[in-house]
Each structure stands twice: as structure tokens, then as C-alpha cells.
Amino acid sequence: MKKTLYFKCPVGFVKVCGENDYLTEIKLTDFEEESSDDITEEMKKCRLQIEEYFEGKRKDFDLNLRFEGTEFRKKVWQALLDIPYGKTASYKDIAVMIESPKAVRAVGGANHNNPFWIVVPCHRIIGSDGSLTGYGGGIDKKKFLLELENAL
Q1: How many CB atoms are closer than 10 A to CB 48?
Q2: What pLDDT does residue 131 have?
Q3: Which of 9, 17, 46, 122 is catalytic?
Q4: Residue 79, pLDDT above cutoff 80
Q5: pLDDT band at 78 (very low <50, low <70, confident <90, very high)
Q6: Which partner from 18, 64, 77, 100 sits 20 to 30 angstroms from 116, CA to CA?
């Protein structure tokens, strides 16, 4: 049975969804709802790791994620995981990494549909010209995250 955890972070509220011993979604929201009564250990671990990230104590996440999506999107999300803390890449860089150099727009679509906010670091994707392009949570939040990581 799917369970949900909500908690506050410096840029809004985090919604974590999980089943059994894996997570199915981590999302930034503008509001907090009531969490499930019996959240899983993996959800507790997720909250702790995100809190550590915002405290500057964590650069990498170690969570059991269940990716659902097309094979293309899974390739993009895996490539995002390869962008280190404090670094950025462009949509074009990701397209080249997954050996689909002409699929820049599709990479943007996959990035937009990333089910694991922060953990799969879509905020580290910038325009080829270095601009802070599209971010579901808003450019101000993207800038905050990149400044936190000293990536700007």
C-alpha cells in the first residue's frame, strides 16, 4: 500500500511516496498535507538525507528508488545521477551522454518529468549558454539549490 510523507524544507514542502522498501516519488510542493500514519523506514531515511543535503552535510543520496517511465526517460534520469554535486550540465550534454545527440527537447521533457526531486538532480541542468532555464519548482528555487551546491 502506497504511503505518503510530507515535511518542510527551505524551498517549500517535500512529498515522499513509497511502497514497501522503495520510494516511488519525491516531489516539491507548495503545501503540506497529512502524512500516512505508518511511513516506511526508506521514507524516514529519505527525509533525513534531504535534511542533511540542506544542512550541507550530504552530497550524494543513497535511497531505494523505483523508476517508472519509458526506457528513454530512464536513461535520462540515470544520466542526471551522473552529474556530481556542485556541477552543472546542459540538455545537450545529457543528450550526448545517452547517445541521442539530437534528442535535446526530449531530454528536457524527461527532465521535467523527473519523479525524484533533488535526489535525481534535474536542478543541475542549465542552458547551453549557461542560463538557468526551466525548472518545475521555479527558477528562484533552482538558483537557491545551485548556490547551495556552489555550482554558480
Answers
A1: 11
A2: 84
A3: 122
A4: yes
A5: very high
A6: 100
For residue 137, pLDDT over 80 is answered with: no
Q: What is the pLDDT of residue 134?
A: 75
Contact (Cβ atoms closer than 8 angstroms) between residue 22 and residue 42: yes
Crossing angle for the helix pair 71-81 and 104-112, to the nearest 10 degrees: 80
Per domain, the residue ranges of the chain are 3-54, 71-148
Q: Which CATH architecture has domain 71-148?
A: Orthogonal Bundle (1.10)
Element (H, E) at 79: helix 71-81
All three cell numbers of 13, joined, read 514542502
pTM for this one? 0.91
Averaged pLDDT, 57-76? 96
**Residues facing 18 on adjacent strands:** 3, 23
Cα–Cα distance measured from residue 86 to residue 2, given in angstroms and rounded to the nearest whole number: 33
Closest CA to 89 of 149, 47, 42: 149
Element (H, E) at 108: helix 104-112
Residue 65 near residue 117, CB atoms below 8 Å: no
Q: How far apart are CA 14 and CA 120, in angstroms?
A: 14
Helix, coil or strand: residue 64: coil
**Residue 17 a catalytic site member:** no
Per-residue confidence (pLDDT) for residue 31, from 0 to 100: 86
